[in-house]
Each structure stands twice: as structure tokens, then as C-alpha cells.
């Protein structure tokens, strides 16, 4: 049995420690906000926080996540400055990548509360958006960084 702390709740799952965390989150815990995109850690759709750091859940064996605090998009409150900015600026188009984008943006702002445009581009570069809403993503992160300082 693997014990996980996800979104401040404890879960026990009967899986091999080698199963990717993404599949446990989606299939066993039924938290489907975290998406499967590429399976090789290149697109960012599966981004979650593990002990506060943005990580790609498709490449983390669930055994390595045991004993750590995991946060998925479902664990981010609706009144979080990043989510508020996302909704205000209508960032999503198809929406598939947005959970991973939001999780990466929150991690960015926790490390750099007042990021420059260059910081945003560099950190968010690993999260792909097939609809190309990168301009709105950058604006939303900038807006959220200002909101977080109030």
C-alpha cells in the first residue's frame, strides 16, 4: 500500500511504487484536473506541486511521492490570485493545458513574487499551449503577482 497526502487529505492506494503519480491521481483518486499530455515530461499538462515545487506527475513514480505533500489543481482555491487573474483575462481557449499552466504559474510566483517578463517566459516555456494563449498567460501571471502584493 502506498500512502499519499494529496490536497491535505490522506489516501491509501494499492499500486506498484513504479506507477506514475499521474495515473494514481487520475485513475485511483479520481482527481482529473491534472491532465495527460505527452507522458515524457515535455508539455506540462500534468504539473502538480510536490512539497511546493512544480513537478511533472507523468514522470514521478508514486513510490517517490509517498510522504510528500502533493497539490493538484483541485487543491488550489478559486480565490487564489492566479486563478482569479486567469478567469478575469479569460486565458483558456480549449482549456486542456490550463491546470498545468496554473500550477506552474503558482510555483513561479512563490519563488519570484515579482517576476519580470523574461522570468515568466523562461519558467513557463516548458508548459505548452496548443491554442497559443501565451500572451494572456503572461498577462495573467503579471496581474496575479500584483494582486498578491496587495
Number of strands: 5
Separate helix tally:
6
N-to-C span: 44 Å
User: If you consult CATH, what is the topology of the largest domain?
Assistant: Ubiquitin-like (UB roll)
Could you name the ranges where pLDDT drops below 50 across 5 or more consecutive residues? none
Task: Please trace the helix and strand order, writing H or E for each element.
Answer: EEHEEHEHHHH
What is the 3D form? globular
Q: What does the radius of gyration come to?
A: 15 Å
Number of domains: 2
Return the CATH class of the largest domain: Alpha Beta
Query: What strand order characterises the main sheet?
Result: 2-1-5-3-4
Protein structure class: alpha+beta
Mean pLDDT: 95
Let me know the largest β-sheet. 5 strands, mixed
Estimated share of beta-strand residues: 5-15%
State the helical fraction: 25-40%
Q: What's the name of the CATH homologous superfamily of the largest domain? A: Beta-grasp domain
Shape-level CATH architecture of the largest domain: Roll
Amino acid at each position: 500500500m502506498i500512502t499519499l497526502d494529496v490536497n491535505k487529505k490522506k489516501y491509501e492506494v494499492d499500486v506498484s511504487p513504479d506507477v506514475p503519480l499521474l495515473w494514481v491521481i487520475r485513475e485511483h483518486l479520481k482527481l482529473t484536473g491534472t491532465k495527460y499530455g505527452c507522458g515524457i515530461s515535455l508539455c506540462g499538462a500534468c504539473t502538480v506541486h510536490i512539497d511546493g515545487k512544480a513537478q511533472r506527475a507523468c514522470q514521478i513514480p508514486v513510490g517517490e511521492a509517498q510522504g510528500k505533500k502533493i497539490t493538484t489543481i483541485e487543491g488550489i482555491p478559486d480565490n487564489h490570485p492566479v486563478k482569479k487573474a486567469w478567469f478575469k483575462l479569460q486565458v483558456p481557449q480549449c482549456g486542456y493545458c490550463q491546470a498545468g499552466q496554473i500550477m506552474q504559474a503558482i510555483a513561479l510566483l512563490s519563488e519570484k513574487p515579482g517576476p519580470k517578463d523574461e522570468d515568466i517566459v523562461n519558467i513557463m516555456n516548458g508548459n505548452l499551449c496548443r491554442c497559443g494563449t501565451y500572451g494572456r498567460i503572461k498577462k495573467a501571471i503579471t496581474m496575479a503577482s500584483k494582486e498578491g502584493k496587495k
